[in-house]
Amino acid sequence: MSDSLLLQEGLSLMAFGMGFVFVFLTLLVAATSGMSRLVMRFAPPEAPSPSSSARAPSDDPELLAVIGAAVKRYRRHHGD
Predict the structure, then answer these.
(1) Fewest C-beta in 10 Å: which of 20, 22, 34, 79?
(2) Rounded distance between C-alpha atoms, residue 25 and residue 27, angstroms
(3) Single pTM value for the model
(4) Rounded CA gap, 4 and 70, in Å?
(5) Distance (Å, rounded) from C-alpha 28 to C-alpha 18?
(6) Distance CA 55, CA 58 (A)
(7) Is residue 59 within a helix (H) or strand (E), and if so which, with residue range?
(8) Cα–Cα distance between 32 and 26 in angstroms, integer?
(9) What gap in Å lies between CA 63 and CA 68, rounded to an integer?
(10) Largest Cα–Cα distance of the chain, in whole Å?
């Protein structure tokens, strides 16, 4: 086999491989986009988050007292 024939076969194999990868990745992107659209169409709408309607933790005096006691105990035992 001559060097030019070997080089030609190598280039054609490279082009075939690159073309195959390009086609595969294009199909993968199309399939992923299609599935995303399908899920968005049939998925139930998201419920509002419960944190938006709930009170802020700083409004609960019992919670603040518990957190304060925990901080004091931590500082007492760790020397801060």
Answers:
(1) 79
(2) 5
(3) 0.50
(4) 80
(5) 15
(6) 8
(7) none
(8) 10
(9) 9
(10) 88
